[in-house]
Amino acid sequence: MTRLPALPFAVALCAMVGCGGTPSPAANLPAAAPPTASAGPVAPPSASTTVPKTSVTAPPTAEHELVGASSRANPIRLEVVLPTGKQASEFPGATADDATCWKSVDLRGQHDKDYESVVSKCGEPTGMLPYTRRVESRMHDVSQGDKGDDKDFFAVQLRKGMCYRFYAIGDDSMVDLDMHMYRKGGALIATSETKSLALIMQSRIAMCVDDDEEWHFELDVNSKGKGRYTFAVWARPKK
Predict the structure, then answer these.
(1) Taking a C-beta distance cutoff of 8 angstroms, is the pair 237, 161 a contact?
(2) CATH code at position 119
(3) Among 9, 70, 144, 184, which is disulfide-ready with 214 (CB 3.0 to 4.6 Å)?
(4) What does pTM read for this prediction?
(5) pLDDT (tens digit, 9 = 90+) per residue, 24-39?
(6) Residue 104 structural domain
């Protein structure tokens, strides 16, 4: 696959919170090492070996899910995975800052792999943990006759005393991905319009909240864009 040039991240135009300046282009990220081979097969137990009965347990929950249609009146509700009451000491120590962590990310035009690249630099290295389960969705170019949504709507319940980052990472056909954030009652919080494949709402600083409240998100792409994208929320305690 032809590697895409790294593109600058979005800068939010905020109605009720502050914003950073325009970021510089990202640098190249080294390719990930191939997975190591697994060990050889395990020999079966001998006849004299007592094999304990295994209890039936529920399968682990997937890290992400593919979501379907949504509307402003019926948004997709993001699942919060960060345990309530998690102490500040349980979060990773920050080794990078919000304003520059994304500069070493190389975008390849694959939403899932690019998401992993972004959070590998701007997730735990900035002291954050996943707040919601990440979701995958697809937007279509309805103006050209394709059936599907040209917008997606999400909602999430945020906790007071936390700082958040919101990531929307698209495929190579999803350039010009935009995000608009609202309070539950409809008041605009922030909006971001980008020419990049990767959108971080406020690229230079996390967004902190002082009260428990529900935020809504509207994501859309221009008339030429269609494809898949990943959306997720990360968080850390407010200092």
Answers:
(1) yes
(2) 2.60.120.380
(3) 184
(4) 0.73
(5) 333 333 333 343 343 3
(6) 1-19+64-81+96-239
